[in-house]
Amino acid sequence: xxxxxxxxxxxxxxxxxxxxxxxxxxxxxxxxxxxxxxxxxxxxxxxxxxxxxxxxxxxxxxxxxxxxxxxxxxxxxxxxxxxxxxxxxxxxxxxxxxxxxxxxxxxxxxxxxxxxxxxxxxxxxxxxxxxxxxxxxxxxxxxxxxxxxxxxxxxxxxxxxxxxxxxxxxxxxxxxxxxxxxxxxxxxxxxxxxxxxxxxxxxxxxxxxxxxxxxxxxxxxxxxxxxxxxxxxxxxxxxxxxxxxxxxxxxxxxxxxxxxxxxxxxxxxxxxxxxxxxxxxxxxxxxxxxxxxxxxxxxxxxxxxxxxxx
Amino acid sequence: xxxxxxxxxxxxxxxxxxxxxxxxxxxxxxxxxxxxxxxxxxxxxxxxxxxxxxxxxxxxxxxxxxxxxxxxxxxxxxxxxxxxxxxxxxxxxxxxxxxxxxxxxxxxxxxxxxxxxxxxxxxxxxxxxxxxxxxxxxxxxxxxxxxxxxxxxxxxxxxxxxxxxxxxxxxxxxxxxxxxxxxxxxxxxxxxxxxxxxxxxxxxxxxxxxxxxxxxxxxxxxxxxxxxxxxxxxxxx
Lengths: 310, 237
Prior knowledge:
The structure holds 2 protein chains of 2 kinds.
Chain A: H1 8-17, H2 20-23, E1 27-32, E2 35-40, E3 45-49, E4 55-60, E5 65-75, E6 81-90, E7 95-105, E8 112-122, E9 127-137, E10 144-146, E11 149-154, E12 159-168, E13 172-181, E14 186-195, E15 200-209, E16 214-224, E17 229-238, E18 242-252, E19 257-266, E20 271-280, H3 284-292, H4 297-308
Chain B: E1 3-12, E2 15-25, E3 30-34, H1 41-49, E4 56-61, E5 64-65, H2 71-77, E6 79-82, H3 94-102, H4 108-117, H5 122-125, H6 136-150, E7 154-158, H7 166-183, E8 186-190, H8 194-199, E9 202-207, E10 210-215, H9 217-227, H10 231-234
Parallel strand pairs in B: 3-8, 3-9, 6-7, 7-8
Antiparallel strand pairs in B: 1-2, 1-4, 4-5, 9-10
Helix pairs in contact in B: 3-6
């Protein structure tokens, strides 16, 4: 891409979120230190800067098939607090892949924060795959804070698959995800989180199954190491004939703390809601098995964690 | 000689699980360990692999004292171990596990071949996770495939028949035999299956933490039937 506004650190950060080459293939908007720096629209995808608040509106035309939309954010300025509103309007029967995410490089002692409020409005029959990756790096003692809010509004027959990943370098995060589902809709969320040091991560899911035959699957897999702390809160309301499955699986190590608070509420006799939660250290027998195949204890642990978070 | 155990003792909760075991096993032998539940068979093979550490005694493998070595060091020297209860892994695929086992880059085709030898239709399995979605029998076959891929001097199986129906198990016996032909190594199998005991070069009969007898299959089987000592051997009670 013609990266006239991007330097080497920017490009590295972008590559952590998504492959730079992929970004340029479809519509994209790159935001750096609170300002849009690069943008490309296509015949089917338009991106417009908001007038009232900081952020963009993304419009996807009806029946758009298999287009990629990238909206990465990078922050390299220490002490910046960036709040952005991005609204996605997905037309009837469109089918698109949206890649978002934020990379923070903080080499100084001031805190850097990015709070992205993403709202998705899916029209009838629309399909979206949404991938969000969060990443932090830098040698400074300034915190790298990310507090994303995702709201998903699904009209009849639409579906959304959301994949969020936060593997490295984020000091503190509170992630809120909300879904409002009409009839015949499906909302699948897969979340992967790894924390170390003194990091803190909290995720809150709130899904309202309002339409007949709506369904949701929420899966959270996390690894908490050293002195880090994680909280998982999931609230699912079955207000019609619907199906919900939520699963929280966490591996803890060292002095880490993980709290899982599942809540499922059936407001209709036809609501079928399931929750599973498991927290524990790596099973000794898993380590033993991999050691009998020649891996050291440390290598075995890495294999287990990498697989778990894949 | 590939393996020598000297005066191995293992005690837990004031119970002598292994009581002064002395054993020598030659290279290239197909050895079956049998005996009643609680006789110490599993503990004995776990001690050879390093999964359990003996309270006293010495383990010599291929001329080296491995008594204080970690599991992975023993694995690298050439010992493999098939678990009675295969372990499940969330996120790790069958292909991943086979790659780790082979300790080299193997293609998907090679992984599929390894699965085919244990009777699994490979394409259906190779990308699946080694988790609770697989049945006990499927996990057991995958476990055997991981061990077979390693092709080591000493291969140990702890009750490979557990969790597999008798019909399928008979087909797996060929796998064990072929494996020892390829590696020219030693196989130690804990088993109660008649077919395994019949094809073994040597049977070790254990009772109450001791080796009661070592002999050929004819010697041990005939005598045990005569004495009705170990009904499990013949599966006839």
